[in-house]
UniProtKB/TrEMBL annotation:
It catalyses: coproporphyrinogen III + 3 O2 = coproporphyrin III + 3 H2O2. The keyword Magnesium does not apply. This is Coproporphyrinogen III oxidase. Its EC number is 1.3.3.15. Pathway: Porphyrin-containing compound metabolism; protoheme biosynthesis. Its cofactor is FAD. The keyword Transit peptide does not apply. The gene is hemY.
Amino acid sequence: MRKRVAVIGGGIAGLAAAVRLRDLTPPDTEIIVYEQSGALGGKLRTGELGGVTVERGAESFLMTGADGAESAAVALVKRLGLGDAIRHPARVPAALAFGGRLAPMPGGTLVGVPGDLAQLGDVAHADAERDHDAGRPLLAEGEDVAVGALVRERYGDEVVDRLVDPMLGGVYAGRADGLSLQVTMPQLARTARVEHTLRDAVRAAQRAGRRVPGKPIFGAVEGGMSRLVGAAAAASSARISLGLPVREIARTAHGWRLLLGPVPAPQTDDVDAVVLAVPASPAARLLSGVAPAAAAALGALDYASVALVGLALPPGTPLPDLSGFLVPPSEGTLVKAATFVTTKWSLPGDGPVIVRASLGRAGEQERLQFDDAVLLERAMSDLGALLGGELPPPVASWVQRWGGGLPQYAPGHLDRLAAARAALPPGLALAGAAFDGIGIPVCIASGERAAEDVSKAWEG
């Protein structure tokens, strides 16, 4: 009998699950992707700015995984026939903005945590004597701590405030004192369970993930990330349902019944398995009736809201020869990071100068609660102050808001996730950033794992 599987959520995790399901299941398997918004892709969204293609969400992916092999993103891109479309950013340095100047990003760090304190220069002071060998590993087996707690204890406050916080803020929009080491820096968490000093743990993690010299670290798809989204949807041969929210999941004798659509005009759909590729809160709501223990474990995850401001500055606008910069929270600016898109991606020099600024951190939602014109004005003001001079008025601009867009993984997140997954009945699986981490490769791997889990449930 033909199987039917629903993927709830049309972001990259859900689409990766759909592609993997297509590869694992019989050709007549019906796959339905339910996306309550009007478009697939989630936070992969390609836009236009001043006649230039510019991402309104994630702009690149890691080329390799922690084991040194190609990342799940690269593997999927190749599976979709887009391997020849991978492009890489220019080899241009980034900087830190603090104290009214741009300082070169110190080398030899792991997400801002240094393995060689001598390379910090005057960016931050660290007390090497604090990182002493106490005769035991930094962390016990299975222990998880906040990144900030570990680094402050071993290196002091300045390394966290000036290096780690801006790095984690750029990726997670979070603060080091609230984010799980095990989720945000899994390599360092592993080596910290063996090594006795933070310096040795960082160096061991760097050796384990050593990249081949000259090999690109990041990649993107020529033409934009939305091209990846469209190719994944096509390769899955899934039926795509847009604008029809799934409001409830119920168990049936042979699988699952989905309650769809608005309350006044409900619809139902019966399927054999479900992949939930949605944020934690809607996932908890959908699971509340069929897996209450899993719902309880997921419901406490917090999120940070961010906004991106895209600026097309007049051609020839001078900018530092950088790919961009990060801003420590201590600077007090709304802008937490900026990307000089024209430089980073080697765009033609006769066009507008494209700058993308990221605004907002965890706990700062109220600073984003202004209309687009105000956010644009504040971004321009912050950028001018950070760059040491007022920017010219843009020839084009946009503001992209991602309300509640970035999960904040508190210490112990992976244990809570494992408990949630263990409480799921067969035929239900979780996928996405809420559960396994931020980043295109992580989300793709999460979706593929979910597809494999529900396929195994059928076989069983």
